[in-house]
Amino acid sequence: MEFRHLGRSGLKISEIAYGNWLTHGSQVEEDAARACVAAALDEGITTFDTADVYAATRAEEVLGRALKGLRREGLEICTKVYWPTGSGPNDSGLSRKHIRESIEGSLRRLGTDYVDLYQAHRFDHETPLDETMRAFDDLVRQGKVLYVGVSEWRAEEIERALRIADEMGLDRIVSNQPQYSMLWRVIEEEVVPLSEREGLGQIVWSPIAQGVLTGKYKPGAAPPAGSRATDERGGADMIKRYLSDDLLARVQDLRPIADELGLTMAQLAIAWTLQNPNVSAAIVGASRPEQVRDNVRAAGVKLDAEVLRRIDDVLGPVVIRDPSRTISPAQRP
Fold it and tell me: Which residues form a coiled coil (predicted)?
């Protein structure tokens, strides 16, 4: 395993992080989830990502039990706040009240007295941003949070938060957690340049595009039984955007490149995200330990400029079937 600084902060994280969205507490039994965490630890992963909303808080509980008894200083535990965790009017968002109550719940479920990275899971348009930033800063000063980040924020939202932190003397955001893959490159235009300038690192999720970049979805064929595309609890709506026959055919054309490099399709996809110098880590999930062990082989892989060009040539302009997004791959930063 290789390690990278999280942006310009002093925190080092494993360049492959283990995430438990859609798995722990929902799709797989706890014994299987704990076996996946054990495999991640065996492979050198030290960074674990979760959120209070995953599996209605159960994902944090499972992760906490899986990590219990380990040397806390050797782990980087990341969680998030924003989405509803209750039915009350203050059980969501980024108000001081919800942030304060959410961190206490997350710490209890995770079985720890601090988290290494606490992330705003989305931007809250209903709460003054200075209130949110002050609430996060309070948690840093109390020692309950070491670093603060965001997830899926737009460049202008990140920029506003940084300006407020600087003006008020508050702790700055050090990271963003966006979706990023060969098929979803929206951060390259604005978020990455801003982050490079301001010292933020990206912890990217879905580097294999919900499994599409493994090559298991074939054009003209029904999705494999038991795959994410057939499981309404596991992101089936999200993956539909990638299932056009044209796009699936282009993904299949990546296989010769992976074969030449001695990589699986998934390893190639994960390694591709790690070639971006602004990416601090790529998050992988798993329902079986062998998936973890396979994905970790992407750590340390270097893809030269010619390979990156060939990948762009194969995929061409990537048009996602999402009414709010049309993505054309830009030159890599």
Answer: none
Q: Any idea what the Cα angle at residue 200 is, between residues 142 and 238, rounded to 5°?
A: 100
Strand partners, 4: 13
Cα–Cα separations (whole angstroms), residue 38 to 35, 67, 254, 289:
5, 9, 31, 8
Which is nearest to 131 in space by CA: 173, 108, 98, 175? Answer: 98
pLDDT at 243: 80
Check residue 323 and give its pLDDT: 39
The one-letter amino acid code at 132 reads T
On the 0-12 / 13-18 / 19+ scale of CB atoms within 10 A, 208 is buried
Note the pLDDT of residue 325: 45
Is 217 labeled as catalytic in the residue annotation?
no
Q: What are the extents of the domains in the chain?
A: 3-208+264-300
Q: What CATH architecture does domain 3-208+264-300 belong to?
A: Alpha-Beta Barrel (3.20)
Asked whether 207 and 284 are in contact (CB, 8 A), the reply is yes
Q: Which H or E element spans position 101?
A: helix 96-110
CA distance 4 to 274: 10
pLDDT at 158: 98
Question: What token pair was written down for 294?
Answer: 């396979």
Q: Which two structure tokens, joined as six digits, stand for 213? A: 């970049």
pTM attached to this predicted model: 0.89
pLDDT in tens, 245-262: 889 999 999 999 999 999
Radius of gyration of the chain (CA): 19
Q: Which of 18, 54, 118, 242 is catalytic?
A: 54
